[in-house]
From TrEMBL:
Domain Rab-GAP TBC positions: 1-143
SMART domains: TBC
Record key words, sorted: GTPase activation
Alphabetical list of Pfam families matching this protein: RabGAP-TBC
Protein name (Swiss-Prot/TrEMBL): Rab-GAP TBC domain-containing protein
Domain of life: Eukaryota
Function comment: May act as a GTPase-activating protein for Rab family protein(s).
Signal peptide: none
Length: 217
């Protein structure tokens, strides 16, 4: 099925009319396009896009013995300033530094030049399509924690190369070309890495703690 840009643009336009608090960003076209590719009908694609951005679900916090209402994606991801995406790029960097690589603040900024696309596009055009769809299955089931699992795993796969990086070009090379990475192309193997590798395991509570630290710093 050919997905015409005009059809994708129309879905995004409807979304911006439907929710005035949402700001347009380029990643929306990628997201709307993938949804349309799967469901093939514009109306269904529109409502699925609305659900992805707006739907909330109940989440149990075991250590606090509480049930919280969570979104599939944080509500500030696609606001006009994309503050949530910017914040979570740094949160991912903090998790990576703690688990895999040490870095300076300068390296954080270099990483973010690459990882911002990961969050904006929800890994579309970053990973092979079959792998991306498997990640989206998890995203719809457990929310945005899987985005961090994926990010940590990608950093871990390229940790040796990134440890030697001395420039932004090296960083971009180190965090690029995942569509031909064997461990990523095999979507079943990659999903096993996400949920079986201890380094990639990250809970909702940990993410919220790091977000809070970032907010207070």
């Amino acid at each position: 099925m050919v997905i015409l840009p005009a059809r994708v643009n129309q879905i995004v336009t409807y979304l911006l009319e439907y929710n005035k608090d949402i700001g347009y960003c380029q990643g929306m076209n990628y997201i709307a396009g993938l949804i349309l590719l799967v469901v093939r009908e514009e109306e269904k694609a529109f409502w699925l896009l609305v659900c992805l951005i707006e739907v909330k679900y109940l989440y149990f916090l075991p250590r606090k013995d509480l049930i919280e209402i969570q979104e599939i994606l944080p509500e500030d991801y696609f606001c006009r300033k994309m503050t949530g995406i910017t914040r979570d790029c740094y949160v991912l960097g903090d998790l990576v530094k703690d688990r895999i690589l040490g870095s300076s603040e300068d390296q954080d900024d270099q990483w973010n030049l690459v990882t911002v696309k990961w969050f904006i596009c929800l890994y579309i055009d970053v990973l092979p399509i079959q792998t991306t769809l498997r990640i989206w299955d998890c995203l719809l089931f457990e929310g945005d924690t899987v985005l961090f699992r994926v990010g940590i795993t990608l950093f871990n796969l390229r940790s040796s190369q990134l440890a030697r990086a001395s420039s932004i070009v090296d960083v971009m090379d180190g965090l690029g070309n995942f569509t031909i990475e064997k461990q990523v192309v095999n979507c079943h193997h990659f999903m096993n890495l996400l949920f079986e590798d201890k380094l990639a395991k990250v809970s909702r509570e940990i993410i919220e703690e790091v977000r809070l630290l970032r907010k207070n710093n």
